[in-house]
């Protein structure tokens, strides 16, 4: 089975005769598509109108469904086919809103000029007061140069904006943080660093997102060094946190010691190198990486990692295999060994579908939709901001991974990302560790 990432909604009328909905469902199923939600829109005297959401792999498969439904006689009619994903993006997904009503001149003078001048002067005299009287401390810049948008590659920052808006929406809903997308019209590391440093006064933290390797390493290292607010490249450390959490949970369910397991990483870009570093620092003895780029392999060696010469060798020898190459279908079914844990994390399509890996004998398998850094970044920043931490460090990341694992049900690899308690737990643990290390509480 392959992942079906095209989602369309079909409005279908069926005469109110038992079995008609079943005929529609069978027609969709026979084409190999999945049915999502079924919503009854209208019940007429002799007919029912429903919106049926289908998940398909290609345009051709969608056309096959349309032909199959149009071929059903007995008064079954397909009225419209709509793209709800596209509709959900109309006008964008986020907005900057005022928290204050400004309905009278008195309110205007309080919120804006002349009243605001006193607040400005206060902050000028006592800069720490900005924490109380501005939104700076609860705002995080989501910065991209568009060079590694999901697994779509270097498609530019504007094409990457829907991802950045998505991250901002998640920051708001899962952690109460104002995420502000910042699109950079440069891919030059020095210019990125300079620009981020220049905008940093307006933010309590910086989330670097979908900045490609190798320049992402230099950009992050330098910003961490030079800024005194938390900086984290999500594709590196957010991903490493969630991957470690999934591995902890898989090993717990399988009754094996993660530190004794052999871990293999395919793809040593931003995500892959950070995952290797995280597992090594966590105490896993045998971490192997492979990449088609010699430079990427050398980078892992510089960090103290070991390399495998190719994917086949790595699959042959490792108990836990993680892939972040951006290449769908890269892991062949025949490479999978019985009892392996396979985390094929590339979005929007994985290196191997979890169902295929499980059929081939894997004990646990997941893709990048479930093992996703959405489980990490909101709570990590909430915790760091609450603790007034100046950094996001390894101890805080491990605390986040362990928090996610502690919220995972036995037999699952990760929890439901929409469960508020998961993000609360991550934030709590990150804050606790940040305070212990930096504030001495
Ligand atoms: N699930 C998640 O939360 C999550 C988070 C971050 C990234 N990702 C996914 O991981 C993928 C990579 O992201 P990234 O930011 O690390 O990108 P990147 O460009 O920094 O790294 C990709 C690496 O894969 C290597 N590679 C490509 N094809 C290969 C092949 N055939 N064999 C071996 N190596 C190969 C490249 O040389 C490169 O080093 C993307 O698809 C992204 O969606 C998922
Ligand atoms: O945004 C995601 O879905 C995860 C991740 O940041 C990615 O780049 O794939
Ligand atoms: Mg990303």
TrEMBL record:
Gene3D superfamilies: Malic enzyme, N-terminal domain, NAD(P)-binding Rossmann-like Domain
Pfam families the UniProt entry points to: 2-Hacid_dh_C, malic, Malic_M
Cofactor binding remark: Divalent metal cations. Prefers magnesium or manganese.
Record-level Gene Ontology MF annotations: malic enzyme activity; metal ion binding; NAD binding; oxidoreductase activity, acting on the CH-OH group of donors, NAD or NADP as acceptor
Keywords attached to this entry: Metal-binding, Oxidoreductase
Residues engaged in binding (S)-malate: 347, 372
Catalytic machinery residues: 112 (proton donor), 167 (proton acceptor)
SUPFAM superfamilies named among the record's database cross-references: Aminoacid dehydrogenase-like, N-terminal domain (SSF53223), NAD(P)-binding Rossmann-fold domains (SSF51735)
Domain of life where this protein originates: Bacteria
InterPro entries: ACT_dom, Aminoacid_DH-like_N_sf, D-isomer_DH_NAD-bd, Malate_Decarboxylase, Malic_enzyme_CS, Malic_N_dom, Malic_N_dom_sf, Malic_NAD-bd
Keyword Metal-binding included in the entry's annotation: yes
The protein's name in its UniProt record: NAD-dependent malic enzyme 1
Source species: Priestia filamentosa
